[in-house]
Amino acid sequence: MLTGLGHDKVHLVGLSRGGFLSLNLASRCSDRLAGVIAVDPSGFAWIGARFILWSLVEVLRWTLPAAILRRIAAGDPAVRHTFRRLLVAGFRYRASLPPQHLFTDDELRAIDVPTHVLLGERSNILRSHEVVTRLEQLNPRISTEVVPGAGHIPTLEVPDLVTARILDLAGKTA
User: Fold this and answer.
1) CA dist 145 → 5, 54, 149 (Å)
2) In what order do the strands lie in the sheet with 33-39?
3) 42 and 79 both lie in a single domain
4) What does pTM read for this prediction?
5) Among 35, 62, 129, 148, which residue carries the largest CB count within 10 Å?
6) How many separate domains does the chain show?
7) How far does Cα 23 stand from its chain's mean position?
8) Is the same domain home to 119 and 161?
């Protein structure tokens, strides 16, 4: 498919499970990848009740009027309201996800493309500073960054920062 589009290599950017999938592909077959940005990816800790509770609270927040949402959540309330319809529609879809997988040290060492892992300091799916320490010890090709005060969705909380990191990676590997 990439060849048909005229591209030999692509950059992957993924949030949460998408970040996990991007890192997973980079660890297994990176020959068609130019680089990866994983934003608060899963795969570093078991996801449990804490994440489920946070998800429910977050969904409820999205129903609040913009004036209230602006006071209690980072980012633009209009973006959350735009995604609200997609989120509600998503509840009607039954995903059949494989069991959770935690990255092994060997999988993380195998990543050989420019990779940046962007983590929320207050993530509820992983301990960001532990992930940074682990990645720094295992693979010098993976750069890391912890976003102060951000939670699991830096793309909503600090979209300009996430966009800048994506453009930085694309510029370095172009």
Assistant:
1) 32, 23, 12
2) 10-15, 33-39, 115-120, 142-147
3) no
4) 0.80
5) 35
6) 2
7) 10
8) yes
Amino acid residing at 107: E
> Are 1 and 41 in the same domain?
yes
Domain that holds residue 83: 48-99
Q: What is the pLDDT of residues 73-99, one digit of tens each?
A: 767 767 666 766 766 676 676 666 677
Alpha carbon of residue 67 to chain centroid: 27
Unique residue bearing structure tokens 């993976």: 142
Q: What is the CATH number of the domain that holds 109?
A: 3.40.50.1820
- 31 and 56 share one domain: no
- Counting other chains too, the contacts that 137-140 makes at CB distance below 8 Å and 24 or more residues apart are 138/105, 138/108, 138/109, 139/108, 139/109, 139/111, 139/115
**Type of residue found at 51:** F
Distances (CA, A) of 61 to 57, 84, 111, 134: 6, 10, 37, 33
* Contact (CB, 8 A) for 155 and 164: no
